[in-house]
């Protein structure tokens, strides 16, 4: 995944020339446009450049030689191979095979040089024609399709149609391959074959009905049986005449107009947004200027493409040769949803397939393959014998709300409570937050998210708990301030594996006694009623990335399941039925590989009765959520009347596109979880292995190979030793940095805001700019499941922290 700016400059039009197939005339179109712009009449002088990123075949047949001959303009080939075969075959036996990232970075450097040449020639505009090899999906040297290699720069495209028999189908297919990858198709070009196949006529009608201009160019002269001099003369005449042809002027004008319109739109988006958009989690009084609103042009892999402002936050004026877009690492994983990178072609194709097969179909009393397959695989992958049913909703908050409805009905039915008339609450953890719908919001204690919501009631009790932190290079479990007598003193651990080795740590009589004493006070003495235990396993996300001692959470579940919330209540005979209270795990954030495992419940070695999932479910592409429930929970809604049923649903419940994308996403993440990338991260956190027995222990546990992070152990330790850092946490794809703030922690703190802004606005050369979010004094970074080169972000983080 290339870290490279988008291909957009103020005074340079960079356009890619793709072909619907090989041999359709891409080089002729490139040459014609080069010839035209070099001689274009008007007040603007045009600097013309031609670039061939990858070329194969003998030098005397190279496209660059042809283009130079007929345009008399500078040309460049970035990577050249002698064999006249596909690039992925031409590199066989070659010592250096460029990666996709190297190709794109070298192309950007060449285009930047072209933009610099425009800037040095006052009053000039430039056009750089980037001609690909073969068809749209022809492989590059690595075997990756070209459309995917060059996607990070997302340059506008001219598609040269196929004039031959069957060319209509190949041209339309090529256009759809480009569109599904997020390219802007500025123009389709067809050659007039004199009415032989009439491809041009059909394609012109097809594309114009879809809002894409299609241009017909004069037929290429017949050069058979001509001498070299005669051939050159005939083609020169063709280019001289055709470059001033009306159709060529229209095609060139389309490229200019599209460029101007794109600049105008991009430059006005922030001010237009300020006028009409109400942003989430935003105090709009603090949004003083339009430039305070980031403008995203696109995203690919781990990076957003963000619009530059004319002047940076440090006062640096942007140079003309710089792209108007810069890549910013998406360090919040787009609010924790991103799993397989932005613009993932496999997910896009899956969405298109399901959209074409189904669109959306209603789900009441019906079924379809994507939803059924997803439910079956989730229930199986959870490895939880309690879970038996899947209920689909649209987002994490709603899925939690459904889980709470399920749990409260089950408790009220078993204990003969009237939940509508009696005050029945939930048990949870302090600092937890489960979403913005009213029911989910009521399952959290008063906080910045809900205390000003007029319907908020806060129905429950939230336990204090010990937390896990790394400080000064050491991991420790720390009780809340002033609660050492209840939870015991701070404990130090050599590594996270020992914190999570619950078998070795054993049951905690101190934790369990504390929990029982609190429940006795609430239930026995005060007569309060509770219908569910609701908590996020391991990490409380929105509450500030709070890392909970897993032994406390395990103890809480154990006590709640054996506690008598109603005197003389009986225990179900079925071992998989809920007891005490239904246990609801909110894994919206922590589940589906976010912490390095499929389910965060496995860290606690506990099987919940209800498990809630969203965020990573579709790899970050579409909203979808699911609430998994046990058979005993399901039976609480079994009855003769419709009113006994779970009367909850959405128009887009179990929408087939989301379900099919989720199946594709889960397959990809499962492959990644077992692949070399993750093995490398896991190995780095285990080195040096303490004993052979430990290594065998990790191996035997399969997926659960200890506790590890995609963020390096070295960087995590360094951060924990920094004088401005209170503590850090690293697990799976999550890195939390809690900064010291003398005025106090929490959401009122602004301690992390300066670091956040510095990470995004670093304009020093070669810096990795990072877009991240803060939670008061906490700055957190999050990666996709397939993120590589995170050391670039780590280096930037350490450098910026040292400047504070």
From TrEMBL:
Record bears the keyword Transferase: yes
A GO term from the CC aspect: mitochondrion
Domain of life: Eukaryota
Keyword terms: Aminotransferase, Pyridoxal phosphate, Transferase
One MF term in the entry's GO annotations: dethiobiotin synthase activity
Annotated GO biological process: biotin biosynthetic process
Keyword Protein biosynthesis assigned: no
Any Pfam family hit: Aminotran_3
Subcellular location: Mitochondrion
Name this protein carries in UniProt: PLP-dependent transferase
Organism expressing this protein natively: Pleomassaria siparia CBS 279.74
Phylogenetic lineage: Eukaryota, Fungi, Dikarya, Ascomycota, Pezizomycotina
């Amino acid at each position: 995944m290339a870290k490279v700016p988008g291909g957009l400059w103020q005074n340079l039009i960079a356009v890619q020339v793709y072909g619907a197939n090989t041999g359709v005339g891409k080089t002729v179109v490139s040459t014609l446009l080069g010839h035209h712009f070099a001689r274009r009449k008007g007040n603007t002088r045009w600097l013309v450049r031609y670039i061939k990123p990858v070329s194969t075949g003998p030098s005397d047949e190279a496209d660059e030689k042809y283009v130079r001959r007929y345009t008399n303009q500078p040309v460049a080939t970035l990577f050249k191979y002698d064999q006249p075969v596909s690039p992925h075959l031409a590199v066989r036996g070659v010592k250096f095979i460029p990666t996709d990232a190297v190709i794109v970075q070298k192309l950007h450097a060449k285009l930047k040089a072209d933009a610099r040449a425009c800037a040095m020639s006052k009053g000039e505009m430039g056009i750089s024609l980037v001609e690909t090899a073969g068809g749209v999906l022809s492989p590059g040297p690595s075997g990756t399709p070209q459309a995917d290699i060059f996607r990070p720069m997302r340059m506008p495209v001219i598609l040269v149609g196929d004039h031959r028999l069957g060319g209509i189908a190949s041209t339309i297919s090529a256009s759809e391959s480009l569109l599904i990858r997020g390219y802007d198709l500025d123009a389709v070009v067809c050659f007039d074959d004199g009415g032989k196949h009439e491809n041009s006529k059909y394609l012109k009608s097809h594309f114009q009905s879809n809002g894409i201009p299609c241009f017909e160019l004069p037929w290429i002269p017949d050069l058979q049986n001509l001498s070299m001099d005669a051939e050159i003369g005939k083609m020169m005449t063709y280019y001289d005449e055709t470059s001033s042809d009306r159709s060529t002027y229209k095609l060139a004008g389309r490229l200019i107009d599209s460029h101007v319109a794109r600049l105008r739109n991009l430059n006005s988006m922030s001010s237009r947004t300020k006028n009409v958009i109400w942003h989430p989690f935003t105090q709009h009084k603090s949004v003083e200027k339009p430039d305070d609103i980031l403008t995203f042009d696109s995203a690919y892999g781990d990076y957003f493409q963000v619009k530059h402002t004319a002047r940076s936050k440090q006062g640096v004026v942007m140079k003309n040769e710089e792209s108007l877009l810069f890549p910013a690492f998406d360090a919040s994983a787009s609010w924790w949803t991103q799993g397989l990178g932005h613009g993932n072609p496999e997910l896009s194709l899956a969405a298109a397939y399901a959209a074409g097969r189904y669109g959306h179909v209603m789900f009441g009393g019906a079924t379809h393959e994507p939803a059924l397959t997803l439910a079956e695989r989730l229930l199986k992958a959870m490895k939880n014998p309690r879970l038996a049913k899947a209920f689909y909703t649209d987002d994490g908050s709603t899925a939690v709300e459904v889980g709470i409805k399920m749990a409260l009905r089950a408790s009220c039915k078993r204990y003969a409570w009237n939940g509508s008339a009696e005050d029945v609450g939930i048990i949870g953890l302090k600092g937890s937050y489960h979403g913005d719908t009213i029911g989910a919001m009521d399952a959290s204690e008063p906080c910045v998210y809900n205390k000003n919501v007029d319907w908020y009631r806060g129905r429950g009790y939230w336990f204090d708990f010990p937390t896990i932190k790394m400080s000064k290079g050491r991991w420790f479990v720390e009780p809340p301030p002033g609660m050492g007598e209840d939870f015991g003193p701070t404990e130090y651990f050599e590594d996270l594996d020992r914190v999570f080795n619950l078998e070795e740590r054993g049951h905690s009589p101190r934790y369990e006694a504390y929990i029982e004493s609190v429940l006795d006070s609430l239930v026995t003495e005060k007569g309060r009623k509770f219908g569910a235990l609701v908590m996020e396993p391991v990490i409380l996300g929105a509450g500030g990335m709070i890392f909970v001692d897993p032994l406390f959470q395990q103890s809480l579940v154990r006590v709640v399941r054996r506690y008598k919330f109603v005197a003389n209540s009986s225990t179900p005979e079925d071992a998989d039925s809920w007891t005490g209270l239904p246990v609801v795990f909110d894994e919206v954030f922590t589940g589906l590989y976010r912490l390095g495992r499929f389910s965060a419940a496995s860290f606690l070695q506990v099987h919940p009765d209800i498990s809630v999932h969203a965020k990573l479910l579709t790899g970050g592409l579409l909203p979808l959520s699911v609430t998994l429930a046990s058979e005993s929970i399901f039976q609480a809604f079994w009855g003769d009347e419709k009113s006994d049923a779970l009367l909850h649903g959405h128009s887009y419940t179990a929408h087939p596109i989301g379900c099919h994308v989720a199946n594709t996403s889960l397959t990809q993440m499962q492959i990644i979880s077992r692949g070399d990338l993750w093995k490398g991260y896991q190995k780095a956190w285990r080195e040096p292995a303490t004993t052979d027995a430990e290594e065998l222990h990790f191996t035997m546990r399969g997926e659960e190979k200890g506790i590890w992070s995609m963020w390096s152990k070295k960087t995590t330790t360094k951060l924990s030793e920094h004088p401005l850092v209170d503590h850090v946490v690293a697990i799976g794809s999550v890195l939390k940095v809690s900064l010291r703030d003398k005025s106090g922690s929490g959401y009122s703190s602004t301690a992390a805001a300066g670091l956040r802004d510095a990470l995004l606005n670093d304009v020093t050369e070669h810096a990795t700019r990072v877009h991240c979010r803060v939670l008061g004094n906490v700055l957190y970074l999050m990666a996709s499941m397939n993120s590589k080169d995170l050391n670039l972000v780590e280096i930037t983080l350490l450098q910026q922290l040292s400047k504070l």
